Amino acid sequence: MQVTAEKLAKLTTEYAGYLEGDKLDAFFREFEIKFAAGHWAAGEFADRFNPLGYNRHRPDFRDTVIDQIARVAQAGIEGIEFHDVLFLNEKGEIDDAKIAEVKDALAHYKVTPTNMNINVWTNSIYRMGGITNPDPAIRKRALEQCLQAVEIAQRVGCQSVSLWPGSDGWDYNFEVNYGVQLDWFIEGCVEINKKAMAAGLKFGTEAKLKEPREGNMVIATTAKAALVAKEVNAICGGNNMGVTIDYGHEQMYGDEPAAQLYMLKRFGVPITNFHVNTAKYHSNDEDRVTGTGDIWKLVDFCYAAIDTGYDGWFGEDQFTYRMEQVKAMRLSKELFGNAMKKALLIYARKDELEKARLSGDQGAVLDVVKRIIYTA
């Protein structure tokens, strides 16, 4: 993201009013805001209440990865995230033909591959964990898949690889030895990070409080993810491992998303990737359209991303079960863009904001931002 005084001045002229359509796209280009969507946001949605999927009534709906890429492009989104399992055959080996097919589609639709997410939870053998599974053979298999995902990311053309440890954690007290499980997780991340470093890729882990594990996941908070990344980087050398921040996951355990960005910067932990969406406090992982929750909190988060110098991708991680996929992705981009515009308008008054903050006068702080939040 590039912010200059000249660009900020355009916010009240060229980009005045609500941003949508071509004006929104121009805004993203002007400020070099890189926006992506997970391939899953363009696909079928199923849950335990509707395991066959919410789109099966649509005779024209197809759910191949090529169809998903096409829908991401149709939504006007320039980047896409993948899962490694899309590129594996039935034997769990890399499918060269699938990689070639996807790369051709990416070139055709002019969509950039951004991040490769490692899926070591969908396969039922991982129901008790991936790289922290109590069975050493399954633990080894999960790690091999993670290392394979790095190769897939490199071949597809992604810039990063991320591990969300969906099945690693516990459902009941006393189920696991927390210390041993954490050791296994760190040991696995060390091996993944080494391979990512050799491949020239960033590596990160994504925190989440719970779900599908209902006690806690092994990396329940961004602070814990940051500690793991620092430990892995100390072992590997360098600063390659970071954190993937999911905005909705922060809502789940009631932390302040904006504050996390300053925490990571202070402790020298890089942000590998951003996932944006909407969830409620102490809820499950709703993954609703970005910008439909607390606008103050979202604008604050966007401001923190600007102020801490984040220049990576913002990726939609959403499951909009009852909304058509292209419309949902486009709306998320639109609402996020308008929140980011508000954050930039506040950033243009940073000196005034900091002066109000230092005064200790809460009313003065609100006076700086109130009109931007409600009218800009």
List the helices and strands and how they pair.
Blueprint: H1 5-9, H2 21-30, E1 34-38, H3 65-74, E2 79-83, H4 96-109, E3 112-118, H5 136-156, E4 160-163, E5 169-170, H6 178-199, E6 202-206, E7 216-217, H7 222-236, E8 241-246, H8 247-252, H9 257-266, E9 271-276, H10 295-307, E10 313-316, H11 325-347, H12 350-359, H13 362-375
Parallel strand pairs: 1-2, 1-10, 2-3, 3-4, 4-6, 6-8, 8-9, 9-10
Antiparallel strand pairs: 5-7
Helix pairs in contact: 2-11, 3-4, 5-6, 6-7, 9-10, 10-11, 11-13, 12-13
Explain what you see.
The protein is α/β, with parallel strands linked by helices. The protein has one domain (5-375): Divalent-metal-dependent TIM barrel enzymes (TIM Barrel). 46% of the residues lie in helices and 12% in strands. The protein has 13 helices and ten strands. The chain has helices spanning 5-9, 21-30, 65-74, 96-109, 136-156, 178-199, 222-236, 247-252, 257-266, 295-307, 325-347, 350-359, 362-375, and strands at 34-38, 79-83, 112-118, 160-163, 169-170, 202-206, 216-217, 241-246, 271-276, 313-316. The strands form two sheets. The protein has an eight-stranded parallel β-barrel, surrounded by five helices. Helix 5 (136-156) runs parallel beside helix 6 (178-199), helix 9 runs parallel beside helix 10 and helix 12 (350-359) runs antiparallel to helix 13. The longest helix is centred in the C-terminal third of the chain and has 23 residues, at 325-347. The radius of gyration is 21 Å and the shape is globular.
